[in-house]
Design goal:
189 residues, alpha/beta, Rossmann fold, 8 helices, single chain
Amino acid sequence: MTAWNALYRSQPLIAGQWVLLIGTGGVSIFALQLAKSAGARVIILSSSDAKLDRARGLGAEAAINYKTTPDWSDAVRAASADGVHHVVEVGGGTLPQFIAALALGGQIHQIGFVAGREAPFNAPAFVGNFARLNSVLVGSRASFEDMNAVMEGANIKPVVDKSFAFDNAQAAFEYQKSPDLFGKVVITV
């Protein structure tokens, strides 16, 4: 739902637009799948080359290691030609580079702050780019039904990294915080 609301709540994603994702957790991987099903082009950032390879396998046009490419906004602009139209931001602390990676009129959909809550804000660059910053939370039942219809029509299946028995729920929550995570963690009941 979070990925759906990021891409479809404010100014909905349009086929051919560029989407920038950070990380390979559940929200980012669902956003990748939803964006590809809509005909968008995706750039994904991760610190793991192995995870970037997996993301390419799901359809990402470009995959950038933000550890080995610290000025990744330049690489994003080079890959997308004119910048990205949508950023699904789950990390926090990276706002200046996301602003630099935006196309004119682009949107940053702020979801979380995994990397920290401190983010310097370059207001002139943001305003000069006619950018939008949207906060994203879970959505309504109607949005949930819309998302499920698209997922069914596009045959999108959740990428489940690991499943844990209910009795082992604590381990599931610990794994959720692990740098090894790719996609969703499931607790079976």
